[in-house]
Amino acid sequence: MSAPRTLYDKIWDAHVVEESEDGTALLYIDRHIVHEVTSPQAFEGLRESGRKVLHPEMTLAVPDHNVPTSDRIKGIDDEESRIQVETLVKNCKDFGVELFGMDDIRQGICHVIGPEQGFTLPGTTLICGDSHTATHGAFGALAFGVGTSEVEHVLATQTMIQRKSKNMRVTVNGALPLGCTAKDMILAIIGKIGTAGGTGCVIEFAGEAIRSLSMEGRMTVCNMTIEGGARAGLIAPDETTFDYLKGRPMSPKAGMWETAVAYWKTLASDDGATYDIEVTLDASEIVPQVTWGTSPEDVVPITGAVPNPANEPDENRRAKMQRSLEYMGLEAGTAMRDIRIDRAFIGSCTNSRIEDMRAAAAVAQKAIEKGRHVADTVEAMVVPGSGLVKEQAEAEGLDKIFIEAGFDWREPGCSMCLAMNADKLQPGERCASTSNRNFEGRQGPGGRTHLVSPAMAAAAAIAGHLADVRDLD
Amino acid sequence: MEKFEKLTAVAAPLPLVNVDTDMIIPARFLKTIKRTGLGKSLFYTLRFDEQGKERPDFVLNKPAYKAAQILVTGNNFGCGSSREHAPWALADYGIKVVIAPDFADIFYNNSFKNGILLIKLPQEDVDKLMEDAERGANATVTVDLENQEITGPDGGVIKFDIDPFKKHCLLNGLDDIGLTMQKQDAIKTYEEKHKAEQPWL
Ligand code: SF4
Predict the structure, then answer these.
(1) Beta strand pairing status for B149-151 and B140-144?
(2) How far is the CA of A125 from the centre of ligand 1 (A)?
(3) What is the mean pLDDT of residues B159-175?
(4) How far apart, in whole angstroms, are the C-alpha atoms of residue A363 and residue A454?
(5) Which of A13, A178, A291, A359 has minimal Cβ neighbours within 10 Å of its Cβ?
(6) What is the tens place of the pLDDT at every residue in A269-279?
(7) Residue A376: how many other CB atoms lie within 10 Å
């Protein structure tokens, strides 16, 4: 009998083409998603050296970072953004890569469309020139974000050169309380392990609370693995995974499906497999989370207050906190619920799937029933993750609820998650955002971001300040 | 990647230490779709004034050095960010060799990936080459990678060390991709096995 292996060990072992003595391995890549920002130089490199895309059929391209989320008919105003998108279109044509263009209903954020199409499958290796590629780990796919040189390497050879990471397991026991979501769970995890907690590791998320999550929730958790410092996150595939994938356009077809599922069922970590690092949390203790600072680990329960740097013993950490508070325009001790906001953003690869739309719409619906709507001082936008999410939401009438409650209902894309298109915060503006990074200037120069769940963002938009979604009941 | 064997060219002196990647290529030029075309922005702030006019006293603006392909410079060249745009800009401008006492780590690796030969020499050898370079266009220097030798304008020879693997890659024009492509057979064999095991992929 071979030694018990983790889910990560199994996927790794199944993809090593060659391993050299110093531990570097040539790893086979099954799936590659390409977007407009990190791929142009890679395609150009192929052209210069007369190389081809080895497996265009394993590659899928989509513009997302630069696309406008309104008036798409007019095209892209910003010239550099437009050129990046046009270049992607041309490259895909020249190299035979399938593209979901801006006018395709299947267009959307790269990490939303992969799973949606069944392109992302359990037991595969998947890369994309984007750090949030970890999202796809929700399916039990080993998914990494890579740089431009590596994008080119994978395009040309369908492999990448890599060393194996350490195994880390985060187990979340118990059940999430009412009003808490996968977003609160991952924020609480990052709050506990810190943004460097997973450095050098692949994190496997396990435990009852993880198993109870929908695929959307699992994607939210894995999406922010990178904010916990790890390169990839993984969740073992199970019935929830198979139900989600069955019948998707690129999923295995009938006949092959059963064979695939039988294999996928062997992927879960063996009993007795060991991890280099283990962390355990109790889901029942989680309270809706909100960030106060400029790092995702700067997180507190919504019932809490802005922490006081004076209480921080570590000098470097104290200085960093001080700087964060200055940037965020916050005073230590202020109750989180008293912090007024100017904007609310519901979207990004963390929280723009149908379930996120439903959660936010439910809050909007409650507000409407009480005769309330988005606060006059707040501008709130909802950006679905893909054309298909948008279509589904509209079929369910969610767009009407949002619009009636005073939210702006937009076209799919990355939008204000990174402010590369026209959607950005003005200097000093404060936003309750469902995205994943609250770095200085991330949502626009001088913009201030508070990371929250979709329900919490909707609640804040209506209240005009950060709010506890549980108070709405 | 282009092969590098032997180069005889004008050497330009840039006697500055800690030339960082922002000096090599300022951040505002990064929103591009190309890895080529960055040469015109190389050393932008050093090379051009606020109006975008050439600063006549910057070495690469002097007629004698316009065609320089070798740069002799100070310690810790290439420090700062990991942007691959820095070696892209140097290569696009036509710089093929940089000689310095030492280089920043990431820049060092990025450069070899892009076909640029970086040579580390003891300070006194760099000083000697710097003097040679200051003599202008008649000061051509020959860099022979195979024999690991630099021949100055007066015929003096300086030996240099280089990692054998990096040397092999440059001499044969192999980048990471080129190297992996040499393993095509192993990849093909793997693919067949993988397809048999997971035929739905
Ligand atoms: S939504 Fe944000 S984090 Fe996700 S891929 Fe787009 S820019 Fe990156």
Answers:
(1) antiparallel
(2) 20
(3) 89
(4) 9
(5) A178
(6) 999 999 999 99
(7) 7
Measured between CA atoms, how close is A91 to chain B, in angstroms? 11
The strand ranges marked E within A196-288 are 201-206, 232-234, 277-282
CB A142 within 8 A of CB A126: yes
CB crowding A50-77: b at 16 or more within 10 Å, else e = ebebbbbebbbbbbbbbbbbbebeeebe
Q: pLDDT tens across B35-47, in order?
A: 888 999 999 988 9
| Binary contact (B33, A123; C-beta < 8 A) | no
Q: Where are the alpha helices (DSSP H) in chain B?
A: 21-24, 44-47, 85-93, 105-113, 123-133, 164-171, 176-181, 184-197
A32 burial (CB, 10 Å; 0-12 / 13-18 / 19+) is: buried
Yes or no: say if A341 and A447 are a contact pair by the CB < 8 Å rule.
no
Rounded to whole angstroms, the Cα distance separating A64 from A128 reads 13
* Orientation of helix A215-223 relative to helix A354-369, angle to 10°: 110
Domain annotation for chain B: domains and CATH numbers:
6-175 (3.20.19.10)
Cα-to-centroid distance, A459 and ligand 1 (Å): 23
Name which residue sits closest to atom 6 of ligand 1, judged by CA.
A414
What is the pLDDT, as a whole number, of residue B30?
67
Structure tokens at A304: 């809490």
Please choose, from the candidates A329, A321, A357, A347, the residue with its C-alpha nearest in 3D space to the C-alpha of residue A436: A347
Question: How far apart are the CA of A435 and the centre of ligand 1, in A?
Answer: 8
The closest CB to that of A159, out of B187, B197, B200, belongs to: B187
Residue A371 has which token pair? 């005769």
Is A406:A366 a contact under the CB 8 Å cutoff? no
Three-state SS for B55-97 is: CCCCHHHCHHHCCCCEEEECCCECECCCCCHHHHHHHHHCCCE
Residues 91 to 150 of B: which have CB under 8 A from any A CB? 113
pLDDT tens digits for A44-102? 999 988 999 999 999 999 999 888 888 777 888 888 889 989 999 999 999 999 999 99
How far is residue B110 from each of residues A84, A447, B84, B136, measured CA to CA in Å? Answer: 24, 33, 6, 29
Distance in angstroms (rounded) separating the CA atoms of residues A145 and A195: 16
Atom of ligand 1 nearest to the CA of A131: 8
- Percentage of chain B lying above the pLDDT 90 cut: 60
pTM confidence score: 0.82
Average pLDDT across chain B, whole number = 89
What residue has token string 């040189």?
A149
Give the residues across from A31 on adjacent strands.
A126
**Nearest CB to B180: which of A40, A157, A259?**
A157
Mean pLDDT of A8-18: 97
In terms of pLDDT, which residue wins out, A326 or B107? A326
The verdict on a CB contact (< 8 Å) between B200 and A260 is yes
- pLDDT at residue number A99: 98
What is the number of helices (H) and of strands (E) in chain B? 8, 7
3-state secondary structure of A422: coil
d(CA A98, CA A61): 6
pLDDT digits (tens, 9 = 90+) for A418-444: 877 788 899 999 999 999 998 877 888
Question: Most B CBs within 10 Å: which of A11, A13, A18, as the mutation test of the B interface?
Answer: A18
Taking a C-beta distance cutoff of 8 angstroms, is the pair B172, B162 a contact?
A: no
Atom of ligand 1 nearest to the CA of A135: 4
pLDDT value of residue B80: 63
Look up residue A410 and give its two tokens. 């937009």
Cβ distance A49 to B1 less than 8 Å, yes or no, reads yes
